Structures are given as structure tokens and as C-alpha cells.
Amino acid sequence: xxxxxxxxxxxxxxxxKEVAAETGLPAFSGKQxxxxxxxxxxRDISEMTNLSKSGRERLSETYxxxxxxxxxxxxxxxxxxxxxxxxxxxxxxxxxxxxxxDRATLCVSCQVGCKMGCKFCQTGRQGFEGHLTxxxxxxxxxxxxxxxxxxxxVFMGQGEPMDNLDPVLQAIEVLTAPYGYAWSPxxxxxSSVGVRNKLKRFLDESECHVAISLHxxxxxxxxxxxxxxxxxxxxxxxxxxxxxxxxxxxxxSFEYIVFKGVNDSLAHGxxxxxxxxxxxxxxxxxxFHAIPDCPLEGVDDRQMEAxxxxxxxxxxFTTIRASRGQDIYAACxxxxxxxxxxxxxx
Length: 346
Hints:
This protein is α/β, with parallel strands linked by helices. Helix content is 33%, strand content 19%.
């Protein structure tokens, strides 16, 4: 049986320097490999032509680039594209490309499935199936057909970033470091429900924007929607966030899916204003799109706008996130679930 090769993709500069030393290449070869990977996007080690031929041969004995193209995609009439990527473990994960005028955002995943179990999320319905490696995360950018058009990345796909923090931070280093993609951290937003200790570490070690999955104005309502409220109550999350400067550095936002009769009234708006008092933040109101076997319902535009206007008038800058890709598998987890069901029926 042929020995499985290790991927270079997703490695930081320090990791690539270790590979160089291990394979008998000069120390500066680590930086050369990083340039071939993250600037030139090579598909094979043989393309790294400023490494010696013998060095490339030695490197290829144990390593490969490790890029994996998408398996399939769904294209929306509005230009949104949902891709299904393979993972190193043989599973599949979703990535969504969202063009919008001169902006193009990529919504990346960090896990297969999710442990958080949010009632309104199809990914949570899958249960937890595995962590993505840094290679799996970076590959969603590396192998994206529209890669060169990207302006922003959001970690809002499948999985909870704080529950897989080391690979997420490693991927962010590759995306932001001078040897990698050299993106500003301000082009990256990481979403979280809040995971004890991990969120603090992320805030200390990263300068990326932060989006907290709130979805309720009180702990009691949030607990009905999000079992993770047990593990790290929203009041603890807010107490932690108040220790950081969001006025002059990165942006803090709260994601709030609006559910009919659950969190959509002006009374809920008043509770939100009280909950977020003193934080320099914004709220993104999100329309709920139905998922199978979920009793929750969305609200009409009029109700969304009334809630937005109330919050903004009371000092919390609020926007309504535009719905994209409604004619394809728009919500996280739907495409991968459909593919898995299809496989089971074969």
C-alpha cells in the first residue's frame, strides 16, 4: 500500500521551516514553499521550481500540496454559490461564495456538523461529526474558483469556531500573515455562540472582527433556542466582551435571527437595548428560512423593519441582513445533508 503523504497546505511558516529541515532543504526553503502555496497556489510540489530538483523529489516522497477541489456546487440566480468540499477525513463540508457589487464574501466552515444543537440550525441537527484541520479550512479559500475576487471571509458556516480553536487560529494566521495571504484581520469575521475560555483566548490572540450568535433578548428565551446557553450564559459572554475595546479596534456585532412570536416584538427590542447597554456594537437582524421539521417561523419585512427602527432609535445600530441564495440550499447544513441522504439511498 502506498504511504499516505502529508499535506503542506494549511501549514504556517514555522511548520514549513520544520518540513525543510526534516527533508534536508535549506532553512530559507520554508519561506519559498509558503510563497508557492499562498501566492502562486500551486497544485503540485514539482511546480516549486526554485527548489532544487533533488529537494523537490525528497519533499514529494513524504509531502504533497494537498489542495482538494470542490465536489459539487449549487448556483443561485443572485450569484451566490454554495460549494461542497471534501475533507481530509473523507467527509464533506459547505462553503458559500456571496458576491455583492464590489464585495465578495466567503462563508467558511470549521467543523463537520456541530455540537451546539441550536434548534433553528440544520448543521446542529446533523450532530457533531468531526473537526476540520487547518488544511481543510484554508482549502476552502485555496481551491475556490472565485478566490481572486474575495474581499471578506466570515467563519459563519458549519460548526462552532471556538470549539475548534487551534485550527481556526492557524488558518487565520495563514490568511493574515505576510508570508501567507497577507489579508488585514479586519477582512475576517469570526462568529461564536460563546464557549467558556476559548472566546477569551480568541480575543487575546486575534484581531479579527467578532460576531456573537445572540438570537434572543433574555437568557430564558436564548436557552429555549440554544442549548449552549447552559455552558456559557450570554451574561458571561457580555461580561467578557466588556473587557475589550470595540470602539477603536475590531468590530463587535450580534447575530439575531427573528422568529415569529418568539423574539420579534418591541418588548423584545426593549430587552435587547437593556441587555447590550454600554457595548459599542451593532445588531444584524436575519430572516429565518425554514428547515425541515422545525416549528419556528420567520416574520414579514414589516416586522423586521419595525424592530430594526426601534433598536436604531434607541442607540443600537441595527441592519437587516440581505437574504441570499434562497433558490438553492441556502441554510447551513442543507446541501451536505441532502448529499448524505442521496449516498444512503444508493
